[in-house]
Amino acid sequence: MKKYDVMVIGSGFAGMAAALFAARRGLSVVQAGATGGIDFSTGFIDLLAVHPIAEQKVWEDPFAALAALRRDLPAHPFCRVSDGEIRLALEEFTSFLGEHGLCYRGREGKNTLTLTAAGTMKPTYLLPCTAWSGVEAWEAKAPALLVDFYGLKGLSARQIAEVRGDWPGLRTARVRFPGMGGELYPEHMAWSMADPARREELSKTVAPLAADVQYIGFPAILGMTDTGAVLSHMQELLGKKVFEIPTLPPSIAGPRLRAAFDRGLPPLGVRTCTQKLITRAVCSDEGFQFTAGSGSTSVELFAHSAILASGRFFGKGLKADRHSIREAVFDLPVTQPENRSLWHRPGFFDPRGHEVNQAGIETDNLLRPLDADGQPFHPRLRAAGAILAHQDWMRMKCGAGLAIATAYKAVISL
Amino acid sequence: MTTLATRVLIIGAGATGAGLLRDLALRGVQALLIEQRDVNSGASGGNHGLLHSGARYVASDREAAMECRAEGDILRRLAPQCIDDAGGLFVAVRGDDERYVSDFPGLCAKSGVPCRALELGTARAMEPALSQDIIAAFAVQDGAVDPFMLSLDNIAQGLSLGGGMRRNLAAVSMDVRHGRVGRVECRDMTTGENVTIEPELVINASGAWAGLIAALAGAQIGILYSMGSLVITQDRIATRVINRLRPPSDADILVPGGTVSILGTTSIRVPSPDGCRPSVAETDRIIDDARAMLPILERTRYIRAYAGVRPLVSLGPAGDDRAVSRGFALIDHAADGVDNFLTITGGKLTTYRLMAEKAADLACAKLGVSAPCRTRTEPLPPSSLGRWTEPGRGPKSWVESRAEDDIVLCECEMVSRGVIDAILDEAKDMRGRSMLKAIGMRSRVGKGPCQGGFCGPRITGHLYDREISTGTQGLAELKTFTERRWRGFSPILWGVPLMQADLQEALHCGAMDLEFGPPPSTTDEESEKCQATGELP
Amino acid sequence: MDFFSIGLALACLSAVCGTILRVRKWFTRGKAMAGSTHHGPRSLRWAAGLADLILLRRTRGGLRRRGHALLILGFLPLLFLHAMDGVVTRPLFAAYEPTLDPWQFLRNLFGLVSLAGLALLLWNRTARLRPLSAAQDWALLAVVGGILVSGFFLESLKIMSEADFTRMADDYFPEAESGELLALKAYWAAENGARFSVFLPTAPEMLEQGAELHEDRCAGCHSPTSSAFVSRSMAALPLSPAMADRGRAAFWYLHVGLAFLGLSLLPWGKFLHPLSTGANLLVRGGSRNSQAQNPPPARGLGLDACTRCGQCSLHCSVAPIHTVMGNADILPMDKLSDLRRHLDARLSPVETGILAEGSHICTECLRCTEFCSAGIDLQDLWMTSKQMLSKAGRAGVDGEIRKSTAGEWAREFASGRLGAIGGTGAGLADQAESFWGCVQCTTCTGVCPVVAVSEDPSRDLDLTPQQIMNLLRMGLKSQTLGARMVWSCATCYKCQEHCPQDVPVADILYELRQLGAEVLREKEGRS
User: Fold this and answer.
1) Looking at residue B524, what is its pLDDT?
2) C456–A191 CB contact, under 8 Å
3) Which residue of C lies nearest to B296 if distances are taken between CA atoms?
4) What domains are there in chain C, each with its CATH number?
5) In this complex, do B503 and C467 lie within 8 Å of one another by their Cβ atoms?
């Protein structure tokens, strides 16, 4: 049985980041995980935008927000990482993505408001470059055309235009996507955009409608693996600035990220057990023995250290029955409300968020999960990402950033 | 400011009100049905959907048992499109009251309720989901009824025969002079417009709100509110209705509802008919209890929970002698000094037709109309109003007869854009209120596993595309829709539904930041006035 | 007119007319299959074809090759030099007499060689090919074997025959005195195995006299019968002279009769294979691949050239499916003969359905074509017949399903006309648990390559994978069975691999397809 330095449990943002950071630091890495939350990613990398969530206070400066958060919520995982570590982690992560065709940008020390499929403006820290012109267009309230497609359920340009009453220069148009009819799926559309002929056809359809605008916005279908090239070609063909808006699920932001990691991690020596969950974990002083998958295709692995980045309920890191929440791999104690009637609030959109979203694993400053006595469960086990307790990534707008930063911290503290 | 004249004013479009509109129309009496929200907004929209064989009441209430049996037969005959005549079983498990079990067949016979004892092996072969620990089983003639289709079909026939109906019209005051209600002042909840109605006779069929409405005319009815919660499973667990064979209590019944099963119920005293919602505690109690007869209930996937408020009439001064049966109450408020006002409330869904008949008999007597009731014999024609609520109708029509460029907007239940457009065109008078909710009521949208998490945003986009939503109104409606579905979703969030809710919040809040922005578009039903005060004996 | 002339005339008539009819069929059947393929000029590599034929290069298997080699080596000379000695040997060799050496010896030798070859072929068929064998296979072996064996018997009985001797003596030694005749008889009895009913002297001077007389009168046409080594050893059989005489007559009729039978049956079934297979090998010109543009007569010839050796069926890639389904037309040998019958419009509708199914299960892997001893271009026949069957409305389950819309199938399946769906209800598609985990993420549809290559998934596939899962969750199985997504699924398993909730999407689609195929088969009466 092969022995590895690090086992990364989970293939979402935190898992991918941990595998990347560990491999880059010369550790032998094996990673197990299944399709999960990352397929529902918007593609944006949030750092921190709302605190306190009950007051729905939105911050322009994420680092100022971090300072306030660390002061107010000493148990929050962001207290375990420094600003410097956060910056380094994000830098390393996005440069990796850039090497693999997904360029990201943002403004140093500032959150940026960007358009969503609902027409709302969402604060985030780093965005795909393919969305950037949309930011510029909105900030300038420049004349722009939003294009959507017959049969694409995930984006209504008219909805965005109606909701954005503050952007009168916004026009909409619905066109046929060349070569596809009936129900359209973003993944298929994005793959087909790899063909220059398809891009030319699309431009021919759209160009006459865009005579008097400076920007054209599309649903996020501009390519899968070479979005930059597709975008520049479209800009060239249309003679306007072009941007993308993430669609409702199934959107391709997740598959794009997944594809970049599938391509980029193996060359770094990461062994990936895709579509396998950890079904058994045995801990000892030497390390951890894991069984990944089950049945005839299961794999036995041994690792000196392990990083638990298995996500929450959808990611299968946490399992809930009617009475309690358990952690799926090591059965670590899970901080949680007393009973299920306290998990959720009566109002779905209650600004305070739902208590169950703050349930999770307790760790020490080195991100080592704690056992029932408050001691580190194992000296070389780390936890990262959404499985950590005392954070509500959906309301604080800190999902990807927290995952990447805690993964970084977990790796460098090994 | 509008004034409407009508012969009969029926307040409340639940099953009884709908049945009254039809019954009176068949007697040639013109009536106007008004409803403060939408059809079946009260107990008629929050019940088990059970067509009682009557066997449940053979020990506790023989009259109700016989009534249920007779009415069930009539409905099966005259409104088969609303009925799933699946049959039912009564099963007892180890530990249940064995004397009740042995008394049961005799009590059924005395009430004229057909009941047949079964071998345990036979019962388990009929329903493989039954526990290995059952100690007795009887077959009865229970069935399932679609209350929405039932009400809508009644209303449709009533309208076709000259009746009228207005939704979103709430009665706010009544002008009583010389012992008669002369005017009823109403407000249109959509537009805020004031509407005055001048009826010859008023029938209060507002169910749980009967006390409040009666009070407008100065009459007192003592009504207690009993909330009952139910949970819905993703699959149809049993072909038949499965009842617990013991003295009636909570968590006794599993009723099939097309492709799902409905499990319940509870009985909790609440202070108001408004704003009640099922709770985590009730859901757990129901499952903990019912799993004894159907163990799969512990493991299966649930879709949502819901609650309805039953009005229980406490027999006050005006009600004593007029009660036709202890099941429902028909009150002639002449005893309260208002000659042309009567109230019909209480009862069960199964006996709605009888309630409407009795109320219509009294009304016609007061109006001097001698035409007899025809609803005992006249079949209820199926209408197009209710057709998209039928489970499986949407997907079947998608496969068999869709238009070429149609797309599916609600994936769970396969409701297509074409169907939604048809509903929107029919429900034109709902403009201004949440169209999403109207669509939800008239179809299976939002009733599947995703509970509107995915289809809500998609249909919102479509409403914008059709220029029905403008500005931020569509987002407000989406939030209302989501909050409404949340009431039923939040009690069952463990296992897979919790993952589903996780995804929903990741989409609505994590991705679209909808927790900011405009508040939900309506303020009714969201009040948290309703708090459980305890359980009824 | 005697038995011989009449028999020969009839046999020749049958052979010639029958062969003409069969050759004609090469053209008609070939044309019936033609379709719209374009036939360009072809160069025939005769040399390679000839080498295939003579060296039996394509005949696989030691038993078969050796058996054929021996049989051909033995039988051809017998055919030309013995059976047709009147038109071949006698004109070429003036001094020919069948009872002279080397002919007598050669006849026995070639007869023995043929018999040895036949024995090997018989062993091959009984040991290896019994399940694949039909009446014509055994008949050919029986007729040829019968001819050979009866020939030996005939010769040995002739050797023994007193009546023959008497006839010969009357014809060629009429003036013989009784003493001389006796001496000759004695000689013949001692040296040549003749059987006489009279007592024969054995005194040396009698034998000497007999030998002299023999030299004088007989030896010109009779070599010693010992050179007929097989028949001569059989002449030791303990038969009375009367029986020998009767036997000799009987076996003459038997031997000649069987020969005529064989000749007249030449155009029937496998009996023509020496001609048709030989011709096919020549025409094939040594090629091992499929030409795919064979002119119609070549196709017709190929259809006829089957030797029923069974090699194609034994090596067929989809033979395991035959084991499961029991449809004999899955295997090439039976499929070929049923294809012939189909081209002659002799198959019932149910049989045509069986042929169509066998035709469509073929994966066109080329193995049968490579292994065919007769060099038949099977691949070309299969591919052309598939098109032909499809056009004739027998498109196999996959094609049949596509002829009606999903909605029409939904009504048919739901109506009960096609029988109950899904016998035990225990399939993945029937179990509610299969769908408990679905969260409507549509990943299965997003990763599906079949949906991706379709320009309009709802139009081309009726339902996408996640829509099929939803319908099944709602218990609406009959709506899914006719959806073309089920029938176009490539079983690449991406959907199942990527599903975050472990819904067995691909397994379920596969199960639906199996179920649909089973129901359609029942509908055709072929369950």
Assistant:
1) 46
2) no
3) C433
4) 284-394 (1.10.1060), 406-523 (1.10.1060)
5) no
Task: Please classify residue A98 by burial: count the beta carbons closer than 10 Å to its beta carbon, then call 0-12 exposed, 13-18 middle and 19+ buried.
Answer: middle
The pair of structure tokens assigned to A118 is 């609902």
Chain B partners within 8 Å of A42 (Cβ): 510-511
> What one-character DSSP code corresponds to residue C370?
H
Interchain pair A35, C443: CB under 8 A: yes
CB C106 within 8 A of CB C80: no
Q: Which of A284-288, C352-356, C392-396 has the highest mean pLDDT?
A: A284-288
pTM for this entry: 0.81
| Token duo for residue C384 | 């052309």
Q: pLDDT tier at C292 (50, 70, 90 boundaries)?
A: low
Q: Of the candidates A89, A79, A49, A33, which has an alpha carbon nearest to the alpha carbon of residue A411?
A: A89
A349 → closest Cβ in B460, B502, B514: B514
What's the pLDDT at B323?
36
Q: Which domains does chain A have, with CATH numbers?
A: 3-103+255-412 (3.50.50.60), 118-246 (3.40.50)
Cα B201 from Cα C471, distance rounded (Å)? 49
Cross-chain CB nearest to A40 (options B472, B503, B509)? B503
The average confidence (pLDDT) of chain B is: 89
Q: What is the pLDDT of residues C510-527, one digit of tens each?
A: 999 988 888 887 777 776
| Binding-face residues of C in 376-435 toward B, CB within 8 A | 406-407, 410-411, 432, 435
With CB atoms and an 8 Å threshold, state whether A183 touches C443: no
Residue B432, pLDDT > 70, answer no
Report yes or no: B280 at the A interface, CB cutoff 8 Å.
yes
**DSSP class per residue in A283-348:** E-SS-EEEEES-GGG-EEEEEEEEEE---STTTTSEEE-SS-EEETTT---EE--SSGGGTS-SST
CA distance A89 to A266: 20
Task: Please name the residues between 198 and 237 in chain B that touch chain C, using a CB distance below 8 Å.
Answer: 234-236
pLDDT at B537: 26
Instruction: Give the closest-approach CA distance of B453 to chain A in angstroms.
Output: 11
Contacts of B471 in chain A (CB under 8 A): 162-163, 165
H-run or E-run covering B451: none
Exposed/middle/buried for B334, CB within 10 Å: 0-12, 13-18, 19+?
middle
Q: Specify the pLDDT at position B344.
A: 94
Residue B387 has pLDDT above 80, yes or no: no
Q: Is C468 on the interface with B (CB under 8 A)?
A: no
Helices C406-415 + B393-401 axis angle, to 10: 120
| Closest CA relative to residue B196, chosen from B183, B181, B213, B212 | B183
Contact A349 B509 (CB under 8 A): yes
Asked if residue B167 lies in contact with residue B142, where contact means CB atoms within 8 angstroms, the answer is no
The closest alpha carbon to C132, from C268, C270, C263, C264, belongs to: C270
Would you state the pLDDT for residue C37?
Answer: 57
pLDDT above 80 (res B324):
no
Q: Does A321 contact B495 at a Cβ distance shorter than 8 Å?
A: yes
C476 closest CB neighbour out of B396, B450, B500: B396
In order of start, what are the domains of chain B with their CATH numbers? 2-44+148-221+316-367 (3.50.50.60), 84-142+225-310 (3.30.9.10), 387-511 (no CATH)
Task: Give the angle subtended at the CA of C445 by the CAs of C441 and C446, to the nearest 5°.
Answer: 80
Report the distance separating Cα B275 and Cα B487, nearest Å.
10
Of C442, C452, C500, which is closest to A36 when you measure between CB atoms? Answer: C500
Which residues of B, range 390-419, sit inside 8 Å of A by Cβ? 405, 407-409
Report the DSSP beta bridge partners of residue B308: B228
Q: Does B391 touch chain C (CB under 8 A)?
A: yes
